[in-house]
Every structure is written in structure tokens, then in C-alpha cells.
Design brief:
alpha+beta; 434 Repressor (Amino-terminal Domain); Beta-Lactamase; 2 domains; 14 helices; elongated
């Protein structure tokens, strides 16, 4: 394990072992101040956004004033706090959680599950998969099998994590032609999600992935897969030749359920005519 990876791993573990991460209740003011600072807002800036006085917000953050339920929700909205963490804020302020968290298999989410499966099937013969907030596979279409051929059983065992599969030297990594570039892209994506959600599990996952050694023979020149505008290509060696993909991520932007808000659908598209022809010729 590289020393930089070890340091990152220990930082992530220390965060998980902090009082807040162990479940020790933190006052509502602490939560508000932490999220405000994370969003790089001054008290005055947040007070203006939330239409409250700076004095009152200061009192809330220091524990001298208790916010109403409506104020907690208003501040959470202005701070763009994820639904899961909004529940945490409500509990810290002495109120009941507002947003439900259910398995996608819950009967009440049957219509959402059907919509996800419709999107995945409709994307065939191109790969697409649904992921939870930690990049574990929730559902996938049949074309995803192209990425999984020959992988060891432990990488495919539930919960199957696409980032581990992608970067583990026993996984897809040796087949990725532009591995260094793709690896940097995944790390940056994880960091952006960590900044948005403050999810400590993502920090631990990133620290783990950073310790993965590069497969033997990986080119350090990183010559392949230049940016196509804002698009990051993914190039994979297969028996049929090198296939090129671009991907998009779809989220339920207006979801009022924790599970649905955190669900991501990643769809892969052929980046060239050769890849499209190969995928269309694959038996499903």
C-alpha cells in the first residue's frame, strides 16, 4: 500500500470514528455551521438566501436559539443538503425525519423500479446500470455483461461495486486502454460527490481505490482517450478490438424519497461507428 494511500485511508477512517460519525448527537447549530462552511457561505450570505436575520442565524449556530421545523427545512434547501442529511438536521433539532428511505424493491416504489428497468432495457444493445450512492449495482441491463466477462467471483459478489470492478487490477483495469485518464476521472467524480454529500463512506472508498496498484504493463504516457469537449471517453480492449464509450449519468432530480434521490443511472454510448457495430452484433 502506497504511503499516500495509507495517509488518505487513515484520514477517512478518522472521520468515520469521529463523534458525529459514531452516532453521538451533534446540536443543530453544529450541523448548520458545518454545511454553511462546506458550501463556502458566510453567515450573512446564508441569512440573505434564507430570508432570516444574520443575528438569528448566529444564535441558531451557537445554540442560543432553537430553529423551527420550517427554518431547518428552509436552511437545508438553501444549502442544497441531500435528503438523507436533511433528516439528520431535523432529528438534531428535535423533529421527526421527513424523508423516507426504502429499498427499491418496496411495493410503494414499484413504479419507480419499473421506470428504472424500462430505461435500462431501452438502452440495449448498449450497457446501462443503476447505482446506489456508494456505486453499488442495483440493476443492470444485459449488455453490461460485456464488461464483466472473466472477472473473479469475489468482485461480482453483492454488493457489486463498479468502482472496485473498474480499478482493481484483477478486474477491468488491465483491459482499459486509457486507464490513467479514466482513473483520474473516477477519482475526480468521487471527490465532487464527497463535496456535495459529505458522505464519509465515499471518502473511505476513494482512499481504498487510491491504493490499488496499476496493472503490470500500464502505460504511464496516458496518450489515449483525449477529451472530446466535456466528454471523458472510456476505451476497453476486447476480443473484437478496442471499444470506445462515452457515458452519461441520470438522477431523479425532483425525488422526495432518499432512495430515489441517491439513485444514479449510468448509460454508456458508443463513441465511434466500430463500437456501435460490435455492440449491435452482440447476442443478448
Amino acid at each position: 500500500m502506497h504511503s499516500s494511500g495509507l495517509r488518505a485511508y487513515h484520514r477517512a477512517m478518522n472521520h468515520l470514528l469521529s463523534p458525529a460519525a459514531r452516532g453521538t448527537p451533534a446540536p443543530i447549530g453544529h450541523h448548520i455551521r458545518t454545511w454553511r462552511q462546506r458550501r463556502r457561505l458566510s453567515q450573512q450570505g446564508l441569512a440573505h438566501e434564507a430570508d432570516v436575520s444574520t443575528r438569528h442565524l448566529s444564535f441558531v449556530e451557537t445554540g442560543r436559539s432553537e430553529p423551527s421545523r420550517e427554518m431547518v427545512l428552509r436552511l437545508a434547501e438553501r444549502l442544497d443538503i441531500p435528503l438523507r442529511e436533511r433528516n439528520t438536521l431535523l432529528v438534531a433539532a428535535g423533529y421527526a425525519p421527513m424523508y423516507r428511505e426504502r429499498s427499491l424493491d418496496d411495493p410503494e416504489l414499484a413504479s419507480a423500479r419499473a421506470a428504472v428497468e424500462l430505461v435500462l432495457r431501452g438502452h440495449e444493445p448498449y450497457p446501462a446500470l443503476a447505482l446506489d450512492r456508494h456505486y453499488n449495482v442495483v440493476a443492470a441491463n444485459r449488455a453490461v455483461a460485456l464488461f464483466l466477462q472473466g472477472l473473479p467471483d469475489d468482485l461480482l459478489a453483492p454488493p457489486m461495486n463498479v468502482l472496485r470492478i473498474s480499478l482493481d487490477p484483477r478486474g477491468v483495469a488491465p483491459r482499459i486502454e486509457n486507464l490513467l485518464q479514466w482513473r483520474r476521472h473516477l477519482f475526480e467524480r468521487l471527490r465532487q460527490q464527497m463535496a456535495a454529500t459529505a458522505d464519509p463512506t465515499l471518502a473511505v472508498l476513494l482512499a481504498e481505490l487510491e491504493t490499488y496498484p496499476l496493472p503490470e504493463g500500464t502505460s504511464t504516457q496516458d496518450l489515449h482517450g483525449e477529451h472530446l469537449g466535456v466528454v471523458m471517453p472510456f476505451r476497453m480492449r476486447t476480443p473484437a478490438g478496442v471499444l470506445g464509450f462515452i457515458s452519461t449519468v441520470t438522477i431523479f432530480g425532483t425525488a422526495h424519497d432518499v432512495t430515489l434521490q441517491e439513485l444514479m443511472i449510468e448509460s454508456f454510448f458508443p463513441a465511434d461507428a466500430f463500437t456501435a457495430d460490435v455492440l449491435r452484433a452482440q447476442p443478448l
